[in-house]
Hints:
By secondary structure, chain A is mostly beta strands. Chain A is built from 3 helices and 23 strands. Chain B contains 1 helix and 10 strands.
Amino acid sequence: MIRVLCLAAALVLAMAAPAAAHSVTAGADLRIAQTIAGAEVTVVVKGTTRVPGPLRIGVIAYQPVSGLPIGLEVRSVEDGHTVTGTVQAAANPQYTQLQVERTGPHELKLSAGNETAVIPFRVLVARGSAGDFLIYGGLFVAALLLVGGLLSGAPARPGRAMAMAAGAAAGVTVAAMVIVFESQIPAPPPEGAAPTPTTSTAGGRPYVQARMETLPARPEAGEEFTLRVDLIDGSTGRSVDDLTAHHEALAHVVVTSEDGRYFRHVHPLRTAPGHLEVRLTADRPGRYLAHAEIEREDSGGQLVAADFTVGGTAKASRKADTVSRSGQTGEPATPAGPTGTPRLQPAVPVAGRPTTIELGTPAGVRTWLGMTGHLLIRSQDGRFFGHVHEMGAPRSRVRFTFSFPEPGRYLAWVQYATADRIVTAPFTVNVTASEAQ
Amino acid sequence: MIKRWQAVAAATLVTAAVALFVVVRSTAAEPVNLTITGTRYAATVLIADPAPGQVTVEIKVSKGDADTVALSAVMAEMGHSTPEISATKREPGRFVAVGELFPMSGVWELSIRLDGPAGEEQLAVKTLITR
């Protein structure tokens, strides 16, 4: 009997090992792209396994920056405890370690130049699961009883042996039951997690209305201005402050001139709940279009758009803007980055059918905004906007598949990051109507 | 022999009950006790029975000299919002509001609007309301 139980305990122990791998890992990294002090960076906050514990923060630069110090301030929203530090943005950044005292809601304040962003986040620490406790507790009791029973000479005394065996069997039974049913028991939320609805009946949150404006109201060509995006909930009228890091940013804002010669893909800073801001400079007067992609918690992505006018007279282009360069539409790829011109399959895309767009890339392409490549598409009139991703790992080309919704002329930009900058390759696509239409 | 098997069964049942208790306890709802610190004020929200319908919410202001406290709630998931309720000052730093803040169960964001010599500030906490 004892031998059988020993064997059972050993078998269960062997089975218990993979079960531990199901446990929730402590807070995953938070990655947020920001356009701050004229630089395109991604802030990485590495999770901690305990509190009080270290929170490591680094800032990855996607363009050459020489000593861009970024001030950091981490504040617990619960008790107001604040720690500060600085970090240097770099292609392979050094991480600054700050001490957090508790789990739950926090705010990370970034300061660079005269710009400030406040990013809300939660410090999460995995809680020990009740299932694991029962599995290991049950097995521990069983093992203790079996070994104790053997040592105390229980086999020679049937009554005591039976009691030991019963206890061991109970321990093994509990462990085995939990192993079998653990997958059906919901894992406890990590410590510091936001409350989640027990039953969700809503399929996504209400729509967002965006009010976009420039400061000053009519920017001058060649002069820096602020593009401000205020987000309002369509059902409550309140500020929308529940944006998720969608493709590593709270918002992806693409600003293009009407003719497409100006292109910026930027990531505005959250200055206050529901308020996003980014600084830009347009080199020529005219009408500009702004498309902002956002995603609320538990919802799908949304696109909001606006337009604004830049006054003044055309200014000579500033030094090469490495955040993203504007280029001549319709021209082949610029010499510095992409290799060759985009190849389209079919060569003349047909509306409503998938078109494949492929562009050769140099060696050393690295993931940016969670993807190897980005294709941004705008119809000539600006009423349609699309954002397509290359999902594969970096290699010698980026490839996108997209069905242009209607015939006509589209402006398109392929973007990817190399070791030291973000490359933007502009081109145009003429889409024909399908014969069936 | 029967007695021994009964003992085994009893031991197993007791252990299973303990296991169930541990699992259930980890998912049960509890009274709300949340603290939030803003730039001007810090407030602790206490709701003894967080359920839909009439609730009593106690606000303890531990930082800042608040004269008035008003509460309102938003359920972001459904896009619901509730009217603002003024809290009554029971003693310095202690306010109590009674009203129908949460018409249905779910995750609600409770907005606390504090006003005093330091100025106005709005703080918000998220809380789960269950039946």
